[in-house]
Amino acid sequence: MDRKVNVAYLKTGMYVSKLDRPWIDTPFLLEGFLIQTENELSVLNQYCSYVYIDTNRGIGATHYIEKAARLKTNPYLERFLQDNRKKVQYENTKSTKEEFPTAQIALEDACDQVAHIMDDVKQGKNLNIQAVRGVVEPILDSIIRNSEAYMWLLMMQKKSAYTYSHSVNNCALAIAFGRFMGLPKKDLRTLSTGLLMMDMGSVNIPQGILNKKGELTDAEYRVVKKHVEQGVKILKTTKGINTDIINITLTHHERFDGNGYPSALQGTQIPVYGRMAAIIDCYDAMTSKRPFSTAKSPYTALQKIYNCRGSAFQPELVEQFLQCMGVYPTGSLVEMTNGEVAIVLEQNLTQRMRPKIMLILNEEKTHFMEYKIIDLAKQFQDSSNLPLNIYRGLDPGTYDIDPTEYYL
User: Fold this and answer.
1) Which of 9, 44, 341, 351 gives a 20 to 30 Å CA spacing to 117?
2) DSSP of 317-359, one letter per residue?
3) From the CB of residue 352, how many other CB atoms can be counted at a distance below 10 Å?
């Protein structure tokens, strides 16, 4: 019996009967073979996204790609992507400066709590859903009051443990994204809880693989891919976890064009929360320093996401995410048209190309005696009465500037 399997779940002893491409396009000489070596697994992983195995001629898999069952989605958001009608129109009830201290406490507590939550799960304990809610609620309330303070903090924080900070960042970005799209608080809570826990299965991945500085081997990458299945298993055995949250974990590595895993879902077969999670997950990964890569600037990360619209990501969601984050996201390092260098402090919702900035370096790339804050939506000329615009985004560390060292 032929069963469709993602290459992440292949192992020796399985009989490959069909590929996702013509056999002639691969190095395999025979049309159908028993997997006997790690090298054969590596070649399959290199050339294919999925294959068919004959379970009568070899062992079975732990996870199959079945005909796409319709997973639960958020009908309001599906409509919003077509008509742009927000269910809730949020307004800031506190200024960025007023919200900053509260947001800072929420972030610090969240990182500590997530570390404890994941360490407990790693030790075989049950997932503490009350602790999870204790992480989500302060972040949720803070971003509802003012999203800019938390976005600035995400850029400022010193990330010591990527897995923990990545989960917290995903949670916060999900709230900001959902807030921008007009989700009610109840739905924001579901979305952010799902994003916080979607990498829970990573606790079972060996640290040597998670912290590897070089490129992963095919075998190591197969191990990493299994965090989806392991995460779903953890959530399904936890009371108080709804289907939407489980489906976020299940689908956050699916891709709009069907080239994701574990089930090669495509388009709207992927619930809208999963489509959002894919964008957020990639954005935070790119803007974070990891063992094998340096952090990209928010501007560069958004450009890469934009370039993947229609392939990895749904075009309408990419457009919404770019509008939410701004062309130059809060915390970005930017160079002005007159050569001065600044940090983006706050977005202007009606003029995304003209945020509020803090000038750090003059046109000669030396520090100003005093850092000047400018709202580009109100000031259109520099001190020489020339047009003042952002010229380009800069990578963190350019001109030896670390945006995390600058506070409001």
Assistant:
1) 9
2) HHHHHHHHH-SS-TT-EEEETTS-EEEEEE--TT-TTS-EEEE
3) 16
DSSP code of residue 62: S
Q: CA separation (Å) from 224 to 8, 216, 229?
A: 9, 9, 10
Q: How far apart are CA 53 and CA 30, in angstroms?
A: 14
Under 8 Å between Cβ of 78 and 183: no
Number of H helices, E strands in the chain: 14, 9
Query: Does a cis peptide bond (omega within 30 degrees of 0) precede residue 315?
Result: no
Reference 268, options 65, 4, 77, 6; nearest CA is 77
Q: Tokens representing 229?
A: 């299945």
Q: Which domains does the chain have, with CATH numbers?
A: 2-54 (no CATH), 75-325 (1.10.3210.10), 333-405 (no CATH)
Tell me the C-alpha distance between 45 and 51, whole Å.
Answer: 10
The DSSP call for residue 292 is T
Per this entry, what is the length of the chain? 408
pLDDT digits (tens, 9 = 90+) for 375-395: 999 999 988 899 999 999 888
Strand partners, 5: 51
Peptide bond between residue 271 and the one before it cis (omega within 30 degrees of 0): no
| CA distance linking residue 170 with residue 196, whole number of Å | 6
Strand partners, 346: 356
What predicted TM-score, i.e. pTM, was given to this entire model?
0.84
Residue pLDDT, tens place only, 185-213: 999 999 999 999 999 999 988 988 888 88
